[in-house]
């Protein structure tokens, strides 16, 4: 087939192939003797990247010329994964390129697989940022992502003797063909030093921040193409480098080697992503990273503003808005004040009015231990001017509160941005709330709990600031690209409108009653399961059968996510097999994957337990094909793209009230998995959309968890439940750690503790019963397929196109910009 690619740009197929060949042989200097697919991947990516550049410049210039209102998504994490397939999909050239590569004797899949993941994030929050910027581009919204260009992304996970071993992820080793360095937009970032104040000619207090040790922030831009719409937005990531004079000073003193070595201090700032998905408190390097992101991004936006409007900021808030991805970049509130006051000469009230109309804050967690606090002494040392400004913001804010509630000193203490105690701390969430015009949670339950619990006082003060934006995922990557067979069936059935309006999946609903359609749906699901088996065969010699339930839990390993509850269920199934209690058995293959924060002791123990249980079960001839347990090492974006099409059952089993939203739950649903889940985060909304009859609900509600935690007695629960008692006894007698005595004692103690905040024992019975309903349902394959179709059909709400449309209509208020190009 001769498929023409974008002839207007001189991008016909023959030109494309010529470009590919030229890059391969002349740019990269390879020939037919080169066996590594990596260079073919690079040459192909360069040829494709060329096809984005015209649109990118056009988009950039259109935003500038129209002087439209713009939004900036500030995030310490952008978990982008791979770029190649996504770029081809959004340009609409997937099939043409595949054919062209095939004609050259190249296997597309091999090229795609040789791209490293851009793992610049921990999990949900980072991947959400990536899905958001995809949807912004597709919705033609003028939104720029600002983040950090970590030299090392999320560590890669090896499992050795059942334990997690972290390996650094040097993802940039072979270069990155998708980024463009733009040294012309470098900004200077100050650290340390001291401040000095004086009164200016108008009687205003003015402050200088001096004797600082500066570093430079250099931007690297990645194109973010919309879905076949001509828009190409920008993800701008900052790299820290040393300043010129930083070296020179030392050089003049004769310490050449010292001065070159000192460069490291500066460049270390963006060296590595912090691999904790909860707060790692108090690390100075982390605060430096956060300030670098905030300051460089704000200077970038303000610099371009001043270029167009001079020092007139009267329209700044009407034309610019910053969305803060959790508190990680929330020092931007104080930095915007500093830039407006100290650099651009505004007075306090004007600067504060602008700041408060410009910043918006998204919260992603209710866990109190995950809330960011910085010690005032560290803050002062690293960022003295910022600390002063935060104290001033707090003084003004405290005056506001006491005007509203005169004499309520306890309220002042509770709401203060500065927490008093042995040592003073800055409460970053409060700084974000006070400095923002919008505060949102990421699912309905989560937003409600924020208002009634964590941020109750603030909600009482400013009810209109608070709102909910239920998360989503981009259907381009998480359905169209990762599951092309299912996507093709959907398009053949209801047309291709669903790609940009996922609510159209509703049109699949009647086809759940269509026998032929169901047969095809089932074939595709089984095919995806087989592919998953083949993919896993590389690493495991476990033989799992395609007719078993594929029961999947992939996410960061955390006690609140309760991978432990999942393992207890697996041990219970094993125990049933050993006791011969296998009437009406349904074969099951349990897949668990996820990384533990390197310093999280219990999470690492849980990984070890999963692997030990897996070894015992998978090698027991009594068990055979009835049950398998597999730990999937190094779970990451590109692994999820292979996993989610092949899942039958999605495990979303967090303790109610603890998972803010979850987004893996949405990817699985879109790909036709059924959910077994608690009433937590977005699970509640998933169940609402699909109906209780197509969802396996279990467990305590958030209120019941709260209530029970006051008189929780796990030992009584264990003793009253034969099945649980046997599971606990198997663990206690060391059945899964025959040669490693005592290694699971702490896990056992946590289950039995009346202070176990995750209430694993409390939900065991209800979980086991729900799993029984799963088994019964899976026996009726045809009915299961119906439910699978209905899950996909009901997943329309969980597109980030919907989420971003809500952010835009209720918070940002941007107008879509048509990039009028004929290509
Ligand atoms: C903070 C300080 C120092 C070092 C690390 C951190 C840090 C880094 C990442 C704290 C938290 C995170 C990530 C949190 C996260 O991913 N939260 C998840 O966000 C998803 C998107 O909204 C939700 O769906 C999940 O429920 C939530 O757990």
Automatic annotation (TrEMBL):
It catalyses: [(1->4)-alpha-D-glucosyl](n) + phosphate = [(1->4)-alpha-D-glucosyl](n-1) + alpha-D-glucose 1-phosphate. InterPro entries: Glycg_phsphrylas (IPR011833), Glyco_trans_35 (IPR000811), Pyridoxal_P_attach_site (IPR035090). GO terms for cellular component: cytoplasm. Its cofactor is pyridoxal 5'-phosphate. Its EC number is 2.4.1.1. One of its GO terms (biological process) is glycogen catabolic process. GO terms for molecular function: glycogen phosphorylase activity; pyridoxal phosphate binding. Keywords: Allosteric enzyme, Carbohydrate metabolism, Glycosyltransferase, Pyridoxal phosphate, Transferase. The modification N6-(pyridoxal phosphate)lysine is found at residue 667. It is an enzyme of class 2 (transferase). PANTHER family: GLYCOGEN PHOSPHORYLASE, GLYCOGEN PHOSPHORYLASE, LIVER FORM. Allosteric enzyme that catalyzes the rate-limiting step in glycogen catabolism, the phosphorolytic cleavage of glycogen to produce glucose-1-phosphate, and plays a central role in maintaining cellular and organismal glucose homeostasis. This is Alpha-1,4 glucan phosphorylase. It comes from Methylobacter tundripaludum.
């Amino acid at each position: 087939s001769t498929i023409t690619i974008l002839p207007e740009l001189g991008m016909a197929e023959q030109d494309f192939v010529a470009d590919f060949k030229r890059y391969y042989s002349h740019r990269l200097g390879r020939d037919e003797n080169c066996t590594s697919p990596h260079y073919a991947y690079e040459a192909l990516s360069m040829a494709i990247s060329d096809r984005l550049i015209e649109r990118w410049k056009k988009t950039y210039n259109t935003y500038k010329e129209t002087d439209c209102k713009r939004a900036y998504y500030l995030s310490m994490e952008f978990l982008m994964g791979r770029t190649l397939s996504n770029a081809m999909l959004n340009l609409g050239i997937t099939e043409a390129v595949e054919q062209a590569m095939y004609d050259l004797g190249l296997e597309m899949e091999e090229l795609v697989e040789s791209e490293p993941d851009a793992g610049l994030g921990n999990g949900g929050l980072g991947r959400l940022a990536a899905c958001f910027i995809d949807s912004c581009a597709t919705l033609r919204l003028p939104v720029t992502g600002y983040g950090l260009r970590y030299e090392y992304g999320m560590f890669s996970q090896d499992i050795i003797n059942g334990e997690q071993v972290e390996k650094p992820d040097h993802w940039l080793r072979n270069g990155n063909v998708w980024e463009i360095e733009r040294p012309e937009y470098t900004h200077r970032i100050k650290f340390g030093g001291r401040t000095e104040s004086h009164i200016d000619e108008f009687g205003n207090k003015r402050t200088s921040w001096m004797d600082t040790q500066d570093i430079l922030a250099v931007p690297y831009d990645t194109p973010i193409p919309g879905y076949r719409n001509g828009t190409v937005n920008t993800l701008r990531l900052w790299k820290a480098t040393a300043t010129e004079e930083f070296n020179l000073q030392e050089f003049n003193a004769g310490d050449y080697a010292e001065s070159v070595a000192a460069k490291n201090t500066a460049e270390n700032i963006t060296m590595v992503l912090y691999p904790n998905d909860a707060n790692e408190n108090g690390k100075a390097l982390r605060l430096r990273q956060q300030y670098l992101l905030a300051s460089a991004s704000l200077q970038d936006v303000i610099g371009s503003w001043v270029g167009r409007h001079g020092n007139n900021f009267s329209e700044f808030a009407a034309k610019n808005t910053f969305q803060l991805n959790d508190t990680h970049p929330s020092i931007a509130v104080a930095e915007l004040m500093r830039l407006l006051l100290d650099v651009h000469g505004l007075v306090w009230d004007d600067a504060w009015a602008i700041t408060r109309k410009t910043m918006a804050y998204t919260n992603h967690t209710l866990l109190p231990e995950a809330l960011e606090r910085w010690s005032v002494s560290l803050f002062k040392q690293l960022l003295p001017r910022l600390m002063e400004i935060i104290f001033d913001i707090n003084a003004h804010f405290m005056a506001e509160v006491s005007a509203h509630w005169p004499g309520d000193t306890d309220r002042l203490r509770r709401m203060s941005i500065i927490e008093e105690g042995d040592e003073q701390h800055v409460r970053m969430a409060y700084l974000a709330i006070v400095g923002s015009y919008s505060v949102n949670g990421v699912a309905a339950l989560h937003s409600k709990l924020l208002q009634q619990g964590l941020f109750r006082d603030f909600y009482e003060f400013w009810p209109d600031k608070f709102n909910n934006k239920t998360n989503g995922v981009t259907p381009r990557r998480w359905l169209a690209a990762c599951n092309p067979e299912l996507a093709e069936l959907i398009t053949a059935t209801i047309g291709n409108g669903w790609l940009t309006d996922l609510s159209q999946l509703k049109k699949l609903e009647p086809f759940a009653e269509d026998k032929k359609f169901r047969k095809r749906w089932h074939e595709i699901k089984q095919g995806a399961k087989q592919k998953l088996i083949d993919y896993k065969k590389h690493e495991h010699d476990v033989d799992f059968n395609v007719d078993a339930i594929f029961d999947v839990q992939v996410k960061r390993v955390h006690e609140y996510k309760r991978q432990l509850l999942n393992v207890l269920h697996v041990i219970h199934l094993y125990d049933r097999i050993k006791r011969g209690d296998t009437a009406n058995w349904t074969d099951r293959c349990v897949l668990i994957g996820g990384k533990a924060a390197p310093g999280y002791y219990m999470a690492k123990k849980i990984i070890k337990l999963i692997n030990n249980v897996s070894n015992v079960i998978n090698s027991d001839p009594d068990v055979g094909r009835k049950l398998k347990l597999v730990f999937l090492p190094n779970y990451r974006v590109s692994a999820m793209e292979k996993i989610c099409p092949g899942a039958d059952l999605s495990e979303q089993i967090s303790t109610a009230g603890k998972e803010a939203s979850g987004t893996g739950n949405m990817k699985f649903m879109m790909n036709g998995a059924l959910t077994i889940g608690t009433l937590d985060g977005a699970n509640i909304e998933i169940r609402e959309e699909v109906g209780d009859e197509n969802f396996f609900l279990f467990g305590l509600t958030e209120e019941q968890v709260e209530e029970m935690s006051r008189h929780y007695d796990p030992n009584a629960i264990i003793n009253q439940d034969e099945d649980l008692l046997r599971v606990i006894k198997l663990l206690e007698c060391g059945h899964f750690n025959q040669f490693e005595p005592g290694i699971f004692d702490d896990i056992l103690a946590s289950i039995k503790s009346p202070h176990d905040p995750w209430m694993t024992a409390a939900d065991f019975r209800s979980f086991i019963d729900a799993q029984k309903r799963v088994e019964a349902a899976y026996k009726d394959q045809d009915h299961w397929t119906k439910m699978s179709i209905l899950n996909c059909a009901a997943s329309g709400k969980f597109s980030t196109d919907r989420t971003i449309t809500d952010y835009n209509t209720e918070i940002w208020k941007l107008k879509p910009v048509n990039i009028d190009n004929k290509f």
